[in-house]
């Protein structure tokens, strides 16, 4: 069961193109880099190594975040070193690093509060009916939203891995424990 989830992750990671001769931020742990590269791969729907404004807008809309095209264009221009309105993986990593530096500046919300807010927001994305649980169907819809097709077996494995109390659904505590 856990092996299939790892295979799914390796499949996602395997789609990433090599970054030889490109400078990437070094302030990330290996696990953080892996997670950020996975995020980039999910954004880069056509796997051409560049995130377009359309791809960013698609992902945000699927997460229930609706922003104007002008804001998307501004975000893309800010992140793109070349100014071409496209973001490659290195630019994405550098952009995230700049955002994190801003969040860690004096006056920012305490890290624990910030983490809790992020976890609650992520949980709400999955918990579509707001009943406090992520069901198998909600998990499947979330995977579809990010463009990942999973088999019934993979879906059952993911649920089994996270569902510690074996009630057939994932509550907030189980979700947080899985991600932390």
From TrEMBL:
Residues 31-66, 67-102, 114-149, 150-180 form the EF-hand domain. It comes from the Eukaryota. Keywords: Calcium, Metal-binding, Repeat. SMART domains: EFh. The keyword Calcium applies. Pfam families: EF-hand_7. GO terms for molecular function: calcium ion binding. It comes from Chironomus riparius. This is EF-hand domain-containing protein.
């Amino acid at each position: 069961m856990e092996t299939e989830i790892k295979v799914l992750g390796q499949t996602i990671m395997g789609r990433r193109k090599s970054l030889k001769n490109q400078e990437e931020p070094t302030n990330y742990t290996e696990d953080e880099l892996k997670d950020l590269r996975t995020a980039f791969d999910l954004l880069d729907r056509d796997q051409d190594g560049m995130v377009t404004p359309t791809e960013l807008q698609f992902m945000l809309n699927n997460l229930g975040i609706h922003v104007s095209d002008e804001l998307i264009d501004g975000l893309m221009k800010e992140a793109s070193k070349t100014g071409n309105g496209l973001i490659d993986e290195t630019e994405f990593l550098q952009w995230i690093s700049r955002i994190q530096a801003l969040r860690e500046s004096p006056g920012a919300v305490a890290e624990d509060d910030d983490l809790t807010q992020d976890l609650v927001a992520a949980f709400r994305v999955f918990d579509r009916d707001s009943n406090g649980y992520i069901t198998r169907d909600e998990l499947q819809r979330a995977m579809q939203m990010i463009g990942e097709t999973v088999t019934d077996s993979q879906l059952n494995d993911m649920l089994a891995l996270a569902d510690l109390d074996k009630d057939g659904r994932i509550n907030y505590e189980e979700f947080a424990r899985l991600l932390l």
